[in-house]
Amino acid sequence: MPSTPAHDRALSALDRFRVELPSWGFADTGTRFGKFFQDAAASNLEEKLHDAGHVHQLTAACPTVAVHVLWDFDDASDTSSAEKTKKMAADHGVSIGSVNPNLFQDQEYRHGSLCSPDASARERAMTHCRESIALGAAVGSKSLAMWMADGTNYPGQDSIRRRFGALKEAYVQLASHMRDAWPGATFLAEYKPFEPAFYQTDIPDWGASLLLCQAAGDNAKVLVDTGHHLPGCNIEQIVALLLAEGRLGGFHFNDRKYADDDLTLGSIDPYAVFRIFHEIASFEHDTGLAPGGAGVDYMIDQSHNLKPKLEAMVQTVCEAQKQFAKAQLVDRAKLAEFQGAGDLVGAETVLKEAYEADVSGLLAEWRRAHGAAEDPLATLRSSGVIEQLGKERAAAREAAGGQRGGGYA
Amino acid sequence: MPSTPAHDRALSALDRFRVELPSWGFADTGTRFGKFFQDAAASNLEEKLHDAGHVHQLTAACPTVAVHVLWDFDDASDTSSAEKTKKMAADHGVSIGSVNPNLFQDQEYRHGSLCSPDASARERAMTHCRESIALGAAVGSKSLAMWMADGTNYPGQDSIRRRFGALKEAYVQLASHMRDAWPGATFLAEYKPFEPAFYQTDIPDWGASLLLCQAAGDNAKVLVDTGHHLPGCNIEQIVALLLAEGRLGGFHFNDRKYADDDLTLGSIDPYAVFRIFHEIASFEHDTGLAPGGAGVDYMIDQSHNLKPKLEAMVQTVCEAQKQFAKAQLVDRAKLAEFQGAGDLVGAETVLKEAYEADVSGLLAEWRRAHGAAEDPLATLRSSGVIEQLGKERAAAREAAGGQRGGGYA
Amino acid sequence: MPSTPAHDRALSALDRFRVELPSWGFADTGTRFGKFFQDAAASNLEEKLHDAGHVHQLTAACPTVAVHVLWDFDDASDTSSAEKTKKMAADHGVSIGSVNPNLFQDQEYRHGSLCSPDASARERAMTHCRESIALGAAVGSKSLAMWMADGTNYPGQDSIRRRFGALKEAYVQLASHMRDAWPGATFLAEYKPFEPAFYQTDIPDWGASLLLCQAAGDNAKVLVDTGHHLPGCNIEQIVALLLAEGRLGGFHFNDRKYADDDLTLGSIDPYAVFRIFHEIASFEHDTGLAPGGAGVDYMIDQSHNLKPKLEAMVQTVCEAQKQFAKAQLVDRAKLAEFQGAGDLVGAETVLKEAYEADVSGLLAEWRRAHGAAEDPLATLRSSGVIEQLGKERAAAREAAGGQRGGGYA
Amino acid sequence: MPSTPAHDRALSALDRFRVELPSWGFADTGTRFGKFFQDAAASNLEEKLHDAGHVHQLTAACPTVAVHVLWDFDDASDTSSAEKTKKMAADHGVSIGSVNPNLFQDQEYRHGSLCSPDASARERAMTHCRESIALGAAVGSKSLAMWMADGTNYPGQDSIRRRFGALKEAYVQLASHMRDAWPGATFLAEYKPFEPAFYQTDIPDWGASLLLCQAAGDNAKVLVDTGHHLPGCNIEQIVALLLAEGRLGGFHFNDRKYADDDLTLGSIDPYAVFRIFHEIASFEHDTGLAPGGAGVDYMIDQSHNLKPKLEAMVQTVCEAQKQFAKAQLVDRAKLAEFQGAGDLVGAETVLKEAYEADVSGLLAEWRRAHGAAEDPLATLRSSGVIEQLGKERAAAREAAGGQRGGGYA
After folding, report:
1. Chain B residue closest to A207 (CA)?
2. The domain B17-399: what is its CATH number?
3. CA-CA to B282 of 20 to 30 Å: which in B325, C83, C307, C401?
């Protein structure tokens, strides 16, 4: 590919594009109908960091790993192991990314966590969040990612307003506490329309997340999980509006066809992924930011029951880079001209040309320059790494009595 | 029905419950596949006010009529006829309610109105809104109901952020202008996820409406049209959150199964209507407001292609009163007790008992006391009014050369 | 309530209305985000049958219990225990209803069961189905309920046509085998649009179920799970079409707001439940069948994470009876008259009058006559049974080392 | 692009790939909120055929034009003008394709057409269909495309079973009549879940269409309109099942994000279009048919309010060819191997490689060889044809008194 301004812009944007890996994405997981186990699944934080490190080695784009407090730390209340954890990550070539409290698995959370009608559950949840904040600061992370399962299953089960009020109070306290205890870090407020709650989720959409962030302060931003929307929802518009408001914190990447299906990014609707990146690139362009410089956190949130976990992660990172790079190629001057003239077909064509551009050469060039594999997925698949890990871990698991875990129930 | 506290509360709440009728709901209308004409359809403002007056006479619950500036005024720029219009309404026993600008039918609005890329279209839209505000003040209305069709059909067609920015600027100006030119009136900001725009609507959801209202000022509130949501959306939760924020302005009532289907309220999902009223009654209870005293505007927005328009309106008013009255019967002390105890089935049962209560006696009592028909729909259907109007209007129409109109294309 | 023809028809229809309870509905269950345990949850078939028997005792409407082969039989290949099982059920006042093979939990089914690309998985699934048929015949059940999780998560993962062809072949063989081995029993073919498969489910809708049944023979009928449809789907129309084709086998009852949410019947949309029963009653009326005589199997399929299982089951049975009884009250002569005249409001009013009728007296009358509790839910809640069972079972569980199970993962 | 077997297969498949243009797609149209007029819109059959001829000239892929009986023939009962119509089409380089009866615009159809409760409406509809069949045979068309708006807006409005029974009887008669009166032609049975009917559409889904076709006979096939599905529906699976049953008749091409949005094909979800073509190519491959030889009718059904009609049609034809060509490139041997091995990522990668292939060279090669423009859209846009037509037609329209029409209301 010749060195055009667009080409160079894409390359430099890719330098700023980092995709965070989820520790839980390397562990066994499933649906409520069952789990299908994989020999190579990771069972503890060390194995997860190893796998994340391997993905980063192949892609050079994944320097951080999101952690789940309940699954990845032996004792959430003990920050003394932070140095050990940081070193463990460093040994695998990565560092600790967003810290994810777990506010949904304890039996006490059956009616909610931060907005449960039960004061003891609320207090337990606040304590867990404060401990997560302490852990986050201790391990050098840059963000707390708050996803809560709070909600109700039946009309009347609880007061929607009381719950939202309790949540707002909690978020205000936590974000304020973070500004002292973990300066510079971001409080990310995720939303989800349903599941595991089936009548009402306490933070159902971006509007609710935004209200909470407005109350919580400037360190609070909205986290957009691409799978957490009602059918038909225009996600890129939400992205555009949040950017304009200065409240887009980041993404949890996955794809879905029906509900929160946890599929690899772009596996169902790749053009929609491109359009999200297009909105961000357009914002950066219009506000004079460097390409890729909007300060958005890109994180993967996927738990795979059938795809080999390492493959799924590498696939997603490569797909994200592909669509991200294409979005840099949009000819924005031409686009603005067609938009101004009300030329629908002209404007659409500009967008589609970028979407349909072949960026494999550009990505290979970037990867060569950064010491990554030119085709990370092919390299992974032909390397035998997964088979080898499978053998080792199966043997270790057998030796340890068959224990599995470290992820969703 | 015996006079219990709940019974009395419901009766007094009904005193405060007013349902505004839409002038356009009495005119011929249809889908993009065609219109089916009705002899009794109204063709001009006088006929619409007549019909609305008849509904109010039957129900004693509909003292105001929403007007559509383009369809109901000969010249939007001329406020001199305001006195005549007010008198015409008064002659039919009603007064003028919300004023609805029309920002979607002029050819110039093909790419939008207040946020069109075309400055001339934007200016035309602003002028129309200012004229609507002048008209509203002149006719003694209490609100401006802003629904806009602005949006795009294709990815790339226009800049989502530029459009939203333009819209925000316009809303800020208009709401500010209203505070001077029409003090005490409410600027109602409606939202809709799609149609007539098919890729992106500029105010797609309550979150977007809320952002606009926050910018526009305290006289700006969100208008919830019950048919303007994505499938599965929990509307009563939106109502609860807007109430808590002090930003719920009012409703456009209708029902839908699929998209914006414009069906009579409660015809598809009556329990959902009850749950909306339950959230409002719960808010009134918790904040010490009188039952029905939350200051929410209840308006009908339905255009019927098949149901006789008068019947559909009476049906909707009666259904609204029915579900509203039931919501007053919820035993809130008992509900709060079950909610606090995490007793799902207990709490749900309290709600369902109110929903399943027979309020026909209570409504008949209220209607007798207010000079309405005890069973407005039955009275209308047996009165022969629609047949009589049909004859008269068909004859008048024939005499006038067959002209029809006054509503959706 | 006076003894009118409608009243008597409803009473006699209720005599024919039986609701089958699911054994797995009494065991602990959850979502993929976790389970919330209940002390009173049943852990084995005996406890499940006990609980089902208790529901039947309270309602007199639930003489049969659906069983899940994998969870309720120690050894699916051994029919010798059938007599013991039958006796165990009889001891609790119930008998064994539909038999549900489990084709989704074995690791071998990771790519499907009857239509897996793996011949060994297909064979295992066929063997399990044949064993289930043998068990069904041995325990005196009347139906095999086939729900399969088969499907794929990604475009390209497998050949949709090959899979459907394999499924059809399997269904043809199994239904044919049933005609010999289990004469008189029904092969019920369920469908589901998604979950646990997220790109494509091999039997996604009623059309696919119907194709399979047409191939499989007259003993094959479609099973409609009320929660297994895309958003907005008109379920009662599917019911009407299947009745007309002679292919409606039965129902799995539950409710949902978003996806397959497994909520209690009618908790979200009770009018929709009524409309389903209305279609069935209308079919019975038009074809001269006795009210309730259409030969449809009514089964509950709900697994509750939060509601006490016994309460949820009693609630559902009562809700089903309530809506079923209301549907009997529709004045079909009047309805037909309005329909023939194109009188929309008249026809709708007839339907709504039945829906809004108070049938509590009628149901109490029926229950008194059949030795059930007049208000089964209130009786259950005040009886202390759940608390007592909780104590006993918690103690037994502790004694046994904490083992839980018998339901969804 | 080098001449590989895949390349040659794609070229030869393109030879068999024809996209039919809709006459109504060149006329003014809109939504229920209004129409935006275009100077270049066609107002009569001659202008429509001219425009279709121009699209065919640019693309060499559109030899036929679908006609709408009510809009394109002066007198449906008069087949004597068939020769003139055929000649008019031939003069513009095209011929008459599918014939579309209009069963939704007459006032008499307010409660339905072929299944209206009104016998006179049913008879009128039958007559219109028979006349359409006569016209179709006379003009040398190959198919009758039956889309009906029949349905109801409210529960109870009519008997769903009676309506479906009437429809089935009508389809049986019409398809039988076609076998005599129009041998070799196909009776295409379209479905749609909603709009213009809002409670229930009489042919809501492919299952209902299939039942009708099974009853109607072998000349009856299902017509899949890509915009006529509930949110989330897996359309390519329906295509696969219909192919396996020998009942896939053809397509109406368009795209949608929300409902039946009538957008240009692939403008929202191009990967979904590719997957549909992949299923067809896979069927052809597995059954030994020539590539593109499945005998499926590809038709456009789009009415554009904003995009210039000629541009939208050319865009859609090019998009269809692009995705169709890509689907020919799938390495089916490799795909089958990965599928058999349960290698999800391998199989998906094979599909995605074809989807992401750059086929612009291949298409240009095919176009050069067939006398089409290499880039039909660019050629059209730079040709000034639309501007020229706009001037001519605006002048002619003015001269004729402003009459517009020939399409949706």
Report:
1. B207
2. 3.20.20.150
3. C307
